[in-house]
Amino acid sequence: DTLIKCTYHDASSPMESPHIHSDDNVRSDLTISPDILSCVGNTPLVRLNRIGKKAGVKCEVLGKCEYLNVGGSLKDRIAVKMIEDAEAKGLLKEGDVIIEPSSGNTGIGMALAAAVKGYKCIIVMSERMSTEKEITIQSLGATLVRAPNVPYSHPESHLNKAIKLMKEIPNSVILNQYRNEANPIAHYDGTGEEILRACDDRVDMVVIGAGTGGALTGVARKIKERCPDCIVVAVDPTGSIMAEPASMNKEKVFFEIEGIGHDFIPTVCDRAVVDKWYKCTDKESFNWARTLIKEEGLLTGGSCGAMVYCGLQAAKDANLKENQRCVIILPDSIRNYMTKFLNDDWMISRGHIDVGFNTAKTWWWD
Ligand code: PMP
User: How far is the CA of 214 from the centre of ligand 1 (A)?
Assistant: First the structure.
């Protein structure tokens, strides 16, 4: 009897319950979702309360939590959009095989959408990308093909391997995120619009990493329409060639950060939307991702570290004031990198942290 009293809330005599109850945080618009694909998007926009202050940034810093999408990244949006677009145009029909070259997250989104919709799916991914992505793609029932980490024009690159497979496999299609207009449109219609609505059309800076450039192009175009003075900051890893001016890309190093940076400019990437490019090394990206996780409780991936590192610098450089607002896109989650930058031995072996460092410590620049 005592146990029951303690466990259940008696609404008729609330004072008898030892618990403090509140349903204030339960939204009034909750419904049943028809399937998991309908839950893609509408991600939280969260204030980062500690990290900006610690870095000496005056403005409000907000993170767009794309890592909370159903497949774990912003690429779920384009996977659904590209597939539904192709279906509507009659380019994709029952029984077809979807093939896609990907650095992993589009692959996860495609495999997820293909599972729900009943398509066969083959993802071609460079050997540089994480085992966690491979396992996720395979667990969704898709086939994962690895390609060597070679320049995009090489016959064995993930792009060319996907084309080769398409020629061999009957009824197969490549929707091609690097060229498909549905990629930036998904971010123009979704991500960018959501940010503006949450911010009542007041955004002073937006920080976006460039992989295909779909998020950069779509979000920036939408935000600039309603906030023409918003500063668009783009993030490119050291070793990639996407930043402008080209003199920023002189350092030719191998980089391990996943999902951003290329040795070519994808067709969907409109670099004219960018006001300022920032570069970021692996060491900065991974340590900042660890700091973001520890300081703010955001379980984010490596490119989020690059976004935050460059975003805070950009907010300082632009001297954004207390009444201004910087929105940072946070593309994917911790799940993809458990055995990589979250592992101390992995970080030590690359010189990103010192021997004796442990995950309980916070890395900070200077
Ligand atoms: N970060 C990660 C982890 C990604 O997987 C991607 C997508 N490749 C991006 C950032 C960049 O997104 P986009 O392709 O839209 O430029």
Answer: 8
Nearest C-alpha neighbor of 86 from the set 183, 215, 195: 183
d(CA 39, CA 77): 10
**Cα of 338 from ligand 1 centre, angstroms:** 18
- At residue 176, what are phi and psi to the nearest 5 degrees? 60, 85
Of 81, 219, 303, the residue with max ligand 1 atoms within 8 A of its CB, to mutate for a pocket test, comes to: 303
Tokens of 44: 């939280």
Give the bridge partners for 206, in sequence order. Answer: 232, 327
- Give me 193's structure tokens: 């619009």
- Going 160 to 162 to 164 to 166, the CA torsion angle's sign is negative
Residue 313: per-residue pLDDT: 98
> How confident is the model over 205-239, as pLDDT tens digits?
999 999 999 999 999 999 999 999 999 999 999 99
Q: Are 363 and 344 in contact (CB under 8 A)?
A: no
The active-site residue, picked from 64, 75, 161, 222, is 75
Between CA 90 and CA 290 the distance in angstroms is 44
Q: Is 167 a catalytic residue?
A: no
**The pTM is what?**
0.94
Q: How far is the CA of 208 from the centre of ligand 1 (A)?
A: 9
Q: What is the spatial distance between Cα 7 and Cα 352, in angstroms, rounded to a whole number?
A: 48
Residue 355: CA count within 13 A, CB half-sphere: 1
ipTM score? 0.99
Joined together, the tokens standing for residue 363 give 């890395």
Kindly list the protein residues whose Cβ atom lies closer than 6 A to any atom of ligand 1.
Answer: 73, 75, 103, 105, 209-216, 258-260, 301, 303, 331-332
Q: Rounded CA gap, 37 and 328, in Å?
A: 24
% the chain with pLDDT above 70: 93
